[in-house]
Structure formats: C-alpha cells, structure tokens
Amino acid sequence: MKRAKQSSRQHFLRIGVIAAVVVALIVGGVALYNSPLFAIANVEVKGVEHLTSDEMAQLANVPKDTTLLRVDTATIEKRIEQNAWVADAQVNRVFPDTLEINVTERGVFAVVEVPTSAGASIKRWAIASDHMWLMPIPDANSDAAKTTSSKIYEDAASALHIVDVPYGTKAEIGQVCTDANVNNALDVVSGLTTELAGRVTQVSAAGTAETTLVLDNGVEVAFGKAEDIRDKERVILQILADNEDNVAYINVRMVETPTWRAV
Q: What is the mean pLDDT of residues 3-19?
C-alpha cells in the first residue's frame, strides 16, 4: 500500500512538472511573440524588373512594427500576386532580421495596339504569354513614364507587335484577354517551334482567319487561324529556303494548297 501511494505521488509529481514546463513554454512563447525580438530590419526583393521599388514597397506593405514571428507572410504573398506583373510570390523569414520576397514576374510577350476610339487613336498595351493584360504603356515623354520601370520600355521595343486590332477590343490590367483576334495572334506565334518564331516581328490581327505575320525580312505570311501550326510552319520554311530572298508574300491559310508571290 505504501509503495502504491508513493508511486501515485511520483506520478502526480511528474504530471505537475510537465504541466509547469508546458505553461512556461506557452508563457515564454507568447512573450517572445509579442516582444520586439527579431524585428524586421531589412526587406530583400528578388526577381523584380518591371516593378519599381516604390511599387513593390506599396504592394508588400510590411508593417513597420512587425517581427519575423508576427509577420503574416501568406497575406503579403496574396497582396503581391494581385499585381498583373506577378505570376508568383514567395515570402520567407531569414533570421534574425530579414524578410525575403521572391517574385516570379510575367514578361512582355507582345505589345498590342488597342484602338481607343473609332478614329485612329490607339493605346499600346503590354500583354504576357499567358494572355494576361499587363498595363497600358505610357508615352515615353509623359509624366507617367517617369514612374514606370525602364525595363518595360526595353522589352516593348523588342517585343512582338500586334496591330490592326478591331475597335471595341477591351483591355484591362490583370485580366486575361478575351478578344479572339488577339488570342489567335498570340497562339500562332507561341505555337511556332522553329527559328521562325524569332523572326516574326509583327502580326496583323484584323480577324482570326485574316491573321498575317510580318517577318524580319519584310515577308508577309497570311497564316490564318492557329490551326495546323506545325504544318504551316514547315511549308513556310520550305518556301523561304527554296526561293532565298525572292519571296514577298506567302499564303498558308489553306496549308494543303499554299501559294507565294515573288518580290
């Protein structure tokens, strides 16, 4: 009986010790969580070229009095990913005092000349390869250009240009393009798998069936719908190879019966 009582006391003592340790850990954890220890002194951003430092600071909006323990990384990630340029964002804690933001950006796949009125007025829009409208590109001499990353202008200068887009085409930042003509043009060029893809400098997107490519040597290619792309590409390359610099126009809308015209 004496041994049983002693064993019982030891059992309760162990439980008491464990409970005391758990309480101490909880109290210590709460105190550490609410303390200024591990305060964020540095925010490092990686992978950003098209957003300015001011834009990133506004997007991240890291609270000034937060710490690595209290910071809500998931909310920051979601906030950053709301920007059209951002395909993915990951926020990491780097102890003792750094918050690291890794961004995967969308690039300028093409510049689309979108009519803004029934007349000749147009606005140049940057669009990504996943058909996401990125932004209207401000005129280089405008006040808006002063707060726009220079990388956007660099990419736009070398990007594919999509022209002859019908009036009424709607572009909205952060929205996927729903215009059939623009989407067809994007699908045609992104579907090319040979060196021909890099030679397309401009696409006329007046209609899906009327989609016409302009190559870097000035040759116009009536391509049509984004169908049988590999077959059309093979025929185009063969005509160019067989006739060297003597081609001005190629029509592969009906790939079974292609035609071409000499310079």
A: 61
Contact 41, 98 (CB under 8 A): yes
Secondary-structure percent of the chain, ordered helix, strand, coil, rounded to 5: 35, 25, 40
Least confident of 2-11, 31-40, 50-59, 93-102: 2-11
Instruction: Write the CATH number of the domain with boundaries 110-262.
Output: 3.40.50
Tell me the domain boundaries of the chain.
42-105, 110-262
Q: How many CB atoms neighbour CB 213 within 10 A?
A: 24
Whether domain 42-105 has CATH 3.30.1490.190: the reply is: no
Per-residue pLDDT tens for 212-236?
Answer: 999 999 999 999 999 999 999 999 9
Write out the two tokens for 242: 């067989």
User: DSSP characters for 66-90?
Assistant: -BTTT--HHHHHHHHHTSTTEEEEE
CB distance 175 to 135 below 8 Å: no
What does pTM read for this prediction?
A: 0.84
> CA nearest 202: which of 220, 184, 228?
220
CA gap 125, 186 in Å, rounded: 14
Judged by average pLDDT, the poorest of 9-23, 60-74, 178-192 is 9-23
